[in-house]
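Researcher: For the annotation table, I need structure tokens for protein acetyllysine N-acetyltransferase. Please keep the output clean. Sequence:
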Amino acid sequence: MAADETSTPTTAEREGILERAWLDGTEVALDLAVAEVADWVAESGSIVVLTGAGISTDSGIPDFRGRHGVWTRDPEAEKASTISHYLSSPEVRKVAWRRRLTSPARSARPNAGHLALVELERQGRLDTLVTQNTDGLHLLAGTSPERLVEVHGSARGVMCVDCDDRADMRVALDRVEAGEEDPACRSCGGILKSTTVLFGESLDPADIDAAGEAAERCDLVLAVGTTLNVFPAAHVPRVAQRAGARLAIVNGGPTDADDGADAVLRGSISDILPRLVAGPA
């Protein structure tokens, strides 16, 4: 390259992510691993994808415990995600509503990683997409609701904890913008919260069952943007491997399942995932 030429940096370069890859525990060049896993994708008839916060960082939504994570920068923010604190403290709720107003998730759009999974579904290879994310970007990208399991719920809805009345989150946020610091349910006066599952709440057993059943029948799991240390979602790859499926991990950093994975691709998700779905070169 001539001295005055420049190239556009990859997402991995911009974020300082060290690109590395392993196949069956042996470190290899990232391009080689991408080509191998792309072959697995092309050969698979039933793929389960598990996504975490890492797939949405390129959409401008920070993760939680990463270098620039929400809870890393502001440990107090975790209180608003804990049901006991949320229900017992009007001040915690007021802070939570202010954060929802300014959350980057409100204007975020799907990135190349989300769109790659829509293409995987279009190809007829996606069995189920299990996501730990609550940002709703998979649905915005075009993933079919019947193939999506949002195990931690969705931040795009609001519900009353007393009467279970539900509405679009925009309805409640309009009230906050109009001056209501802690809007109450207009049906019964109860406390409103997002339709996410907060710490201390139970997950929907039907969602857990659907994720587990999909894991048992698939032949390949792609774990994308998750450190695989939050359960029960982290059981999905383990269940699939016990049933004979391969596991490929795509993430910006180490995960708790790297040692047992068939492939580990470390780098930018929005750079790598579209290459896997595009098929063999």
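Researcher: And a one-line annotation?
Model: The first strand starts at residue 20 and ends at 23.
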